[in-house]
Specification:
The structure is a single chain. β9 and β10 (about 325-330) form a beta hairpin. The protein has helices at about 15-20, 25-30, 55-65, 80-90, 105-115, 130-140, 160-170, 190-200, 220-225, 240-245, 255-265, 275-285, 285-305, 330-340, 365-380, and strands spanning about 45, 95-100, 125-130, 145-150, 170-175, 205-210, 235-240, 250-255, 315, 325-330, 345, 345, 360. The strands form three sheets. It has a seven-stranded mixed beta sheet, sandwiched between helices. The protein has a four-stranded antiparallel beta sheet with strand order 9-10-13-12, with helices on one face. It has a two-stranded parallel ribbon with strand order 1-11. The protein contains 15 helices and 13 strands. The radius of gyration is 23 Å and the shape is globular. The chain is α/β, with parallel strands linked by helices. About 40% of the residues are buried. α4 (about 80-90) runs parallel beside α12 (about 275-285), α5 packs across α6 and α7 runs parallel beside α8.
């Protein structure tokens, strides 16, 4: 209703919103947003976070560093300083370059954005079950996602992978090493043959080493040994599992020419001054975080052994990450019983048929793992 003939007549607010929603892509409207479980009042063992905080003296020192930053200025040369520090920390091959991202998630999106083609012709390929952001980001960037199921014991199905690479000729193949949520470190020979197959179709391979601090092998060793063979490979890591999940900082290493193209689609100032300084501070105290990783690896082995003795735990897989995958009789019931006992884990049983009745646990401190084992024994 218009009170004056001189005013533009507009529909009611709800109608305006409905009309505006039609401008949102249909596939986006059909998506479910990435949700984070509330952990208030719970023992949080659902997100593979480092359970250790900084010692008080390091907290004070970091606070002084962050408080002295010129936050009225855009991030400056500390970006380059952090690139150099991470290159040294990772022992980056001499012929490579490094780009920073707001966590691994942004780097996954940047690689896909750089490879997206008009009409959605470019494809992304990854084993399943795997990290959900590979497929979600592909859809958002307008690429087709091709998932290839792992074997029942969560190894690469090499024959299926090679056939899919030959058929789909993916622009990007993601290989998580180790994989999430299975925590498996795939056979080196199968990995190598998939990487070579992607090269044969002119594709890029992203080796995702988010959980490298807890793994027994890194693909950087191969990249250093045979640089010519890996001219199409980008290796991605994050400081989240290093112990800085709240800093949201990932980095990607690869051939200079390839990294330079990814860097072109990176938003300016994508890593804040606070994030840069916190990461630099952590790298200056890398031995503290290395000791934490050593402790968590030992706790992981203790946790796996203890889980295998619990009645009602049907299967526990060996882990190369700071998480453990296990199968129980009723994952949904066990999850709810644990939550009622103030312990939060991840129910992954509906993510993929191979994960039927599976739960994923984060490896915590000794005290946290003891509480988890007590609660799980009672819940089962």
């Amino acid at each position: 209703f218009c009170a004056s003939p001189h005013l533009l007549c507009l529909p009611m607010t709800a109608d305006l919103t409905d009309r505006a929603l039609q401008r949102i892509r249909a596939d986006v409207r059909a998506l479910h947003a990435y949700t984070v479980q509330s952990a208030q009042g719970l023992l949080k063992l659902d997100a593979m976070e480092n359970p250790f905080t900084l010692a008080p003296e390091l907290q004070a020192a970091l606070g002084q560093r962050l408080g002295a930053l010129e936050l009225n200025r855009y991030p400056g040369p500390r970006y380059a300083d952090l690139q150099a520090a991470l290159a040294a920390h990772a022992q980056m091959p001499a012929d490579c370059a490094l780009v920073l991202g707001n966590g691994s998630d942004e780097l996954i999106s940047l690689v896909q954005l750089a490879c997206a083609q008009p009409g959605g012709q470019a494809k992304v390929l990854a084993p399943l079950p795997g990290f959900v952001m590979y497929g979600m980001s592909a859809q958002l960037q307008g690429l087709q996602f091709v998932g290839v199921s792992l074997t029942p014991d969560f190894e690469l199905d090499e024959a299926a992978m090679l056939a899919a690479i030959a058929e789909h000729r993916p622009a990007i193949t993601f290989l998580a090493y180790p994989n999430n949520p299975t925590a498996t470190l795939w056979d080196k020979g199968a990995m190598q043959r998939c990487i070579d197959a992607a090269a044969a179709v002119g594709g890029i391979v992203v080796v995702d080493e988010a959980y490298q601090p807890f793994a027994s092998h890194t693909w950087l060793d191969e990249m250093r040994a045979e640089p010519a063979r890996y001219g199409h490979v980008l290796l991605m890591r994050t400081l989240s599992k290093f112990g800085l999940a709240g800093v949201r900082l990932g980095y990607m290493i690869g051939p200079r020419a390839l990294v330079a193209e990814i860097d072109k689609v990176r938003p300016p100032y994508n890593v804040s001054s606070l994030n840069c300084e916190a990461a630099l501070f952590a790298l200056e105290h890398a031995e503290v975080f290395a000791q934490q990783a050593h402790t968590l690896r030992a706790e992981r082995e203790r946790l796996v052994a203890a889980l295998r003795t619990l009645p009602g735990v049907l299967q526990v897989w060996d882990s190369q990450a700071n998480m453990v995958l296990l199968r129980v009789r009723d994952a949904a019931d066990t999850f709810e019983r644990l939550r009622a006992r103030k312990v939060l884990i991840k129910n992954v049983s509906t993510m993929h048929p191979l994960l039927a009745q599976c739960l994923r646990l984060t490896v915590g401190s000794a005290e946290q793992n003891d509480l988890l084992l007590q609660a799980l024994a009672a819940s089962l």
